[in-house]
């Protein structure tokens, strides 16, 4: 039961309050309908290693991840942006897990129950620290608390279904953690297998130590590529093709992408629209200033910020920085209507009360219910008298089938609520304002609660405020005017050329967006463009889309598909590829020119006579690319050349770098002050490097897994 108390303190949905559903602000994302998507293939959200991924299976994983985040962050719901991040994370993790599972199966790697139990017993995995099963004395995960909770849940399922339902959220969260621990362990074992294929030895460790700690001081002669104009460098298509073959791996495109040109128009409120809402807000300001019940005015205004009628800290308004930043400094009273250009809103704040209240309160309770309100009152009065007379709280709680366990209520658990009924409000106020160890008898709509506050912590200023925040929005008339104009423009734009020709006449701008993949959530960064994305990946080059109404009902868009880049290698004459090739070929030509000029010289003075810039650089190591101020670039090749040149020697050959060509004189070499060789430590670092290399190999496995991403069809 103690473990259950800790669990309940973690989130809104886990607090037990007389069966009224207090703090149970339930928000579920409805399953997205697949209506209109025909054919069996369209029921698949993707594919990996030839295996189809059903949309329902993917949605189940997304829901699990959402619930886990809500539980750990004590949130009722997630924003659209957060949901998209969840979907991306789930997708990437699912692909990675399936690839690892497939290869692990081939070589017989599994995760045993004993291995999982060892992780739980050790209790050091970061994932475990996010669970409620933390020992208050040690501050670490305690497997005993977990076992107590799981046993309690199994017993409650048969003996106390109501309690089991209250524990279910925490149980589901643990199942999520356990599943991910198994996947993590499998990935680690798989990574270790590959890392073991790269052996480390003492000689390698000593060399690595030298590379990291031997510092060189040099005199450097630099010839920057920027000293020669690109236009003065001559090259041919054959040069570009040769460079393409050299760099071809970097032009590999793992998935198909598409380029577009588009016109996006955002509807803005007119001056008439602004004046209308400003007039409306001034009327609300007068009403709010004198209203005996601010809730009615706030509700009528359709404010973006609900009125819960409870004192809250400024952090409750973190989603609205303009409110959070100034509400603490406001006195009791009502502000004028103020405009916030950052979020395009008009705002009114009425501060009703400011007081010092705890942000964390420990309490216990006994729920009292009976056939009638009078009977409930009589029972509650009897319990209150007994407790005031010195009766044992736990004993009385057990008499009524309850535990009377201690529960912590924090501000975070209610300050972000979107609704608050009178019972909830009364209960929270009683907890926050109750005298420590005093016995309260609360009369609520469905019964009584005997409440005892046990401890209070983290006193801070809390404010009861009524806020009206309204977006400065466009009117229906404004939208209709904009729609008619945009419709006319699209009707005349049957080709890209037409759209480009007419854009200026209508006051629009044709924009470009390249390399769009099916992994995108929005087209051109505009919300609500799923239909446009579906059109894009079914269209042919040159096709013009219909008019799309998108965004938050405040955008009109038309799209032209200009280029399809298939999966595979981009050709050498692709516009983007060609630009890269030109830069590299020009750099090569300049390097050849400078190398020829510096070839055969034997001193810094001779390099200076050839036009090189001279500088001194200290503390150069092989392990870290040296930054050359004269050319403005990091130069790993120069670090390598310096490491291979003895103290007192001049560089044998000019070094071709990222931003120039270099020759140098090594003035001195010495081990870094205080550097001491620790063989065990150095060997461990080598092993870690091997693990990183293995991680890169695993990423390559995912890259070669023939992944098909059709999420755009569903989400």
Keywords:
715 residues, alpha+beta, 4 domains, six-stranded antiparallel β-sheet, four-stranded antiparallel β-sheet, 21 helices, 43% helix, 21% strand, globular, disordered N terminus
Structural write-up:
This protein has 715 residues and is of the alpha+beta class. The protein folds into 4 domains: 2-196 and 707-713, no CATH class; 209-254 and 573-671, no CATH class; 257-268 and 490-566; 272-471, Roll (Chitinase A, domain 3). Helix content is 43%, strand content 21%. The protein is built from 21 helices and 21 strands. Strands 6, 7, 8, 9, 10 and 11 form a 6-stranded antiparallel sheet that branches. A hairpin with a 4-residue loop joins strand 7 (338-340) and strand 8 (345-368). Helix 5 packs antiparallel against helix 6 (161-195). The longest helix has 35 residues, at 161-195. The radius of gyration is 34 Å and the shape is globular.
């Amino acid at each position: 039961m103690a473990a259950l108390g800790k669990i309940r303190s973690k989130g809104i949905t886990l607090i037990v309050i007389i069966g009224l559903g207090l703090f149970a602000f339930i928000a579920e994302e409805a399953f997205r309908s697949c209506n209109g998507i025909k054919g069996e293939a369209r029921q698949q959200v993707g594919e990996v290693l030839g295996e189809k991924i059903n949309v329902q299976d993917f949605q189940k994983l997304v829901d699990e991840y959402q619930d886990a985040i809500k539980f750990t962050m004590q949130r009722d719901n997630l924003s659209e942006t957060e949901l998209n991040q969840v979907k991306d994370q789930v997708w990437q993790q699912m692909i990675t897990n399936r690839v690892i599972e497939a290869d692990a199966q081939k070589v017989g790697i599994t995760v045993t129950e004993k291995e999982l139990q060892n992780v739980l017993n050790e209790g050091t995995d970061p994932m475990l620290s996010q669970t409620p099963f933390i020992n208050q004395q040690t501050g670490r995960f305690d497997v005993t608390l977990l076992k107590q909770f799981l046993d309690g849940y199994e017993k409650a399922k048969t003996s106390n279904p109501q309690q089991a339902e209250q524990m279910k959220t925490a149980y589901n969260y643990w199942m999520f953690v356990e599943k991910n621990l198994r996947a993590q362990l499998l990935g680690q074992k798989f990574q270790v297998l590959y890392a073991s294929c790269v052996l480390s030895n003492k000689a390698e460790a000593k060399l690595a130590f030298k590379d990291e700690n031997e510092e060189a001081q040099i005199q450097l002669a630099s010839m920057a590529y920027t000293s020669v104009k690109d236009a003065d460098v001559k090259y041919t298509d054959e040069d570009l093709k040769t460079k393409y073959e050299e760099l071809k791996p970097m032009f590999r495109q793992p998935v198909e992408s598409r380029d577009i040109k588009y016109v996006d128009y955002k509807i803005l409120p007119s001056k008439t629209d602004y004046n209308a809402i400003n007039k409306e807000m001034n009327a609300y300001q007068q009403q709010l200033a004198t209203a005996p019940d601010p809730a009615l005015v706030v509700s009528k205004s359709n404010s973006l910020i609900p009125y819960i009628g409870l004192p809250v800290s400024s952090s409750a308004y973190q989603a609205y920085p303009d409110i959070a930043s100034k509400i603490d400094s406001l006195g009791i009273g009502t502000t004028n209507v103020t405009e916030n250009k950052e979020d395009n809103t008009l705002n009114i704040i009425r501060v009703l009360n400011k007081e010092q209240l705890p942000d964390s309160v420990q309490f216990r309770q006994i729920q009292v219910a009976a056939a009638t309100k009078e009977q409930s009152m009589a029972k509650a009065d009897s319990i209150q008298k007994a407790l005031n007379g010195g009766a044992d709280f736990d004993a009385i709680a057990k008499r009524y089938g309850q535990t009377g366990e201690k529960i912590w209520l924090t501000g975070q658990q209610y300050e972000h609520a979107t609704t608050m009924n009178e019972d909830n409000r009364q209960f929270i106020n009683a907890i926050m304002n109750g005298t420590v160890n005093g016995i309260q008898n609360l009369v609520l709509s469905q019964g009584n609660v005997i409440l005892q506050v046990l401890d209070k912590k983290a006193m801070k200023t809390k404010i009861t405020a009524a806020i009206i925040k309204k977006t400065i929005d466009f009117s229906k008339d404004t939208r209709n005017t904009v729609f008619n104009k945009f419709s006319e423009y699209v009707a005349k734009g049957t080709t890209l050329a037409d759209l480009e020709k007419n854009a200026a006449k209508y006051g629009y701008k044709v924009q470009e967006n390249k390399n769009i993949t099916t992994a995108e959530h929005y087209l051109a960064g505009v919300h609500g463009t799923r239909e446009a994305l579906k059109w894009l990946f079914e269209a042919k080059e040159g096709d013009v889309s219909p008019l799309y109404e998108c965004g938050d009902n405040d955008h009109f868009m038309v799209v032209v598909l200009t280029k399809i880049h298939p999966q595979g290698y981009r050709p050498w004459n692709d516009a983007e590829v060609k630009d890269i090739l030109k830069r590299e070929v020009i750099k090569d030509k300049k390097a050849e020119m400078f190398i020829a000029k510096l070839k055969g010289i034997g001193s810094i003075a001779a390099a200076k006579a050839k036009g090189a810039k001279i500088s001194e650089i200290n503390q150069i190591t092989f392990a870290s690319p040296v930054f050359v101020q004269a050319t403005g670039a990091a130069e790993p090749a120069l670090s390598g050349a310096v490491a291979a040149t003895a103290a007192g020697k001049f560089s044998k050959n000019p070094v071709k770098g990222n931003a120039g060509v270099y020759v140098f004189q090594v003035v001195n070499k010495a081990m870094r002050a205080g550097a001491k060789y620790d063989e065990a430590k150095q060997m461990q670092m080598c092993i870690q490097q091997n693990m990183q290399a293995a991680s890169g190999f695993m990423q390559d496995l995912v890259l070669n897994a023939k992944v098909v991403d059709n999420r755009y069809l569903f989400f």
